[in-house]
Amino acid sequence: MEDVDQLVEDAAASGDLDTLRRLAAAGSSDAEDVLVELAGERGDLDELRRLADAGNSDAADVLEELES
After folding, report:
1. CA 64, 14, 47: angle at the middle one, nearest 5?
2. By the 8 A CB rule, do 7 and 14 touch?
3. pTM for the whole thing?
4. What is the DSSP code string of 12-52?
5. Residue 55, SS3?
6. Nearest to 51 by CA among 6, 61, 13
7. 26 near 19, Cβ under 8 Å?
8. DSSP letter (8 states) at residue 54
9. How far apart are CA 7 and CA 19, in angstroms?
10. pLDDT digits (tens, 9 = 90+) for 32-68
């Protein structure tokens, strides 16, 4: 698990969304949290919608906030 945590940390630092998506798809909730955070900071509504549609309630909350 430590390896995954390091991968998430490295991907977050570099803004590597593809790696974060891959890690999230493999079950890393930390990677998914970082994706929500980065998408919110960037105003990336498409990414937030994708995450919300997949059941991420944090993404849905951020999306609702940005759209209002």
Report:
1. 25
2. no
3. 0.89
4. HHHT-HHHHHHHHHTT-HHHHHHHHHHHHHHT-HHHHHHHH
5. coil
6. 61
7. no
8. T
9. 8
10. 999 999 999 999 999 999 999 999 999 999 999 999 8
Give residue for tokens 């759209």: 67
Maximal C-alpha separation, the chain = 38
Rounded distance, CA 59 to CA 39, Å?
9
* Class of residue 61 by CB neighbours under 10 A (exposed 0-12, middle 13-18, buried 19+): middle
Which tokens is 22 given? 């891959």
Are 31 and 24 within 8 A, CB to CB? Answer: yes
**Residue 61 tokens, joined:** 């909350």
